[in-house]
Amino acid sequence: MNAILSPVNLVTRILIVDDDEGIRSLVSSFLVKHGFAVDAACDPMEMRDRLAQGRYDLIVLDVMMPGEDGLSALRKLLREGGPPVIMLSAVGTDIDRIVGLEIGAEDYLAKPCNPRELLARIRTVLRRRAARPLGEPLVPKVVAMAADDEDALHFAGWKIDLAGRTLHDPAGHVVSLTDGEFRLLRAFTQHPRRVLTRDQLLSYARGSDADTYDRAIDVQISRLRRKLTSSVMEGELIRTVRSEGYMFVPAVTRA
Predict the structure, then answer these.
(1) Are 151 and 233 found together in one domain?
(2) Secondary structure of residue 22 in the 3-state scheme
(3) Alpha carbon separation from 83 to 58, 160, 243 (Å, rounded)
(4) Do 110 and 167 lie in a common domain?
């Protein structure tokens, strides 16, 4: 399929991966009408064959497929440095959506979805990927730290070992964190006592793979707050600043 070139999505190539031929056809035809070059695959194996043959700017990936499911395919895709992914699933619960987002999907839509909403989400992801914000960069140097990342940070009796990627409570016990929670806490401890917007937190924690669905940040912060409950410091460690973002309250020292 040949794309209609436009200023918004010049030579943008999208791959639709879904075992439902009807959905593949419907979504592909709709996106082609809006100027995108679209290919389709019926399963993750065909998806990888397509990727081996050429570049894609974005993948729309179904979750529930026979054989290898979409979440497993997403993990492999991100490990190999693949393009951004929007997940589609007939299972639209919060838990399923959060799992997809935490693995690294850019967005998640429940099926059946309005093709126009999918189009809007695709454009949002592509704009976010292409954006070069003015002023303070969304991805600061701390994301790519080298020697400075080989030590520990201390706050309110807690210790975060950056090299070992572990968190110790004031009693010295290791507190289990998901990869997303660790990266978010690292971002907070490296930018203490300043208000961080959701966009900044997304970029600090995820770099160029920043999630466009900012409610995922709220979920991660809620989990962090529950885990940071045995601090000797009175009051909250992560403060919500209404209409602005979040602030990491305690002072942070470097070992």
Answers:
(1) yes
(2) helix
(3) 5, 31, 31
(4) no
